Amino acid sequence: MRVKICGITRDEDGEAIARMGASALGFICVPSSPRYVGVGQIRQMVDRLHSWRVGAIGVFANVGTEPIGNVVREAGLTGVQLHGDETPEFCDRLRAELADGIEIIKAFRIKSEADLERTRLYRDRVDTFLLDAYHPGQLGGTGRQLDWTLLDGFDPGVPWLLAGGLNPDNVLTAIARVRPTGIDLSSGVERSPGIKDLAKVARLFEQLGARGQQRP
Ligand SMILES: O=C(O)c1ccccc1N[C@@H]1O[C@H](COP(=O)(O)O)[C@@H](O)[C@H]1O
Q: Does this entry carry the keyword Amino-acid biosynthesis (predicted)?
């Protein structure tokens, strides 16, 4: 089970969570978010993570391919998460901008079957899907669950992460019900926006037990 913990803003949180066994850490590059971190700060955190086998994913929404490429290179990211309204063609252009091996995760905010259907258009263009809850006026980090019943039989043909309102108390039910390739948590393991609650993160990994983490 791949485990991504998103919204890291402090060196000490990143290091502790990498040590606990996270596959990837997420850094919010969306300026309107309370979890926003600048490129210099991300670089500093990424440098401190070099001894851990952990991915470093930048989360972007509705910005150009060139600024994303610049942040990826300057911060030393291993991947990007597109959390806005990026088109399939945008994903192709971004692929051309990024070095080989940089992971592209496309996030979808799901409120209906039609949203799930739309994910098909991205299948051959990105590496990984992420399904999050839709909440009007907010891009992410909402702490809200999407309607898991919509995901019955969802099999996109690419690895995919379940996100949206996951926490140590509901994560095992979510995995058993939805069977994603991986999970992504942010506000469910926080004390306040951007400040992780390491006791909650530890409880999450206890819950996950011997499942083992995969791919940075
Ligand atoms: O966390 C944010 O502030 C954020 C801002 C803009 C885009 C995405 C953001 N977070 C992503 O939201 C999901 C779910 O978060 P939660 O677990 O429900 O709090 C997660 O993928 C974050 O990467």
A: yes
Q: Which domains does the chain have, with CATH numbers?
A: 2-211 (3.20.20.70)
Ligand 1 atom 1, closest CA:
141
Confirm or reject: Cβ of 35 under 6 Å from ligand 1.
yes
Decide if 91 is catalytic. Answer: no
How many CB atoms lie under 10 A from the CB of residue 72?
25
Q: Read off the pTM.
A: 0.95
Tell the residue nearest (CA) to atom 2 of ligand 1: 141
Question: What CA–CA distances, in Å, run from 115 to 87, 118, 163, 205?
Answer: 13, 5, 15, 31
Mean pLDDT to the nearest integer, 38-67: 95
Residue in 13, 29, 91, 132 annotated catalytic? 132
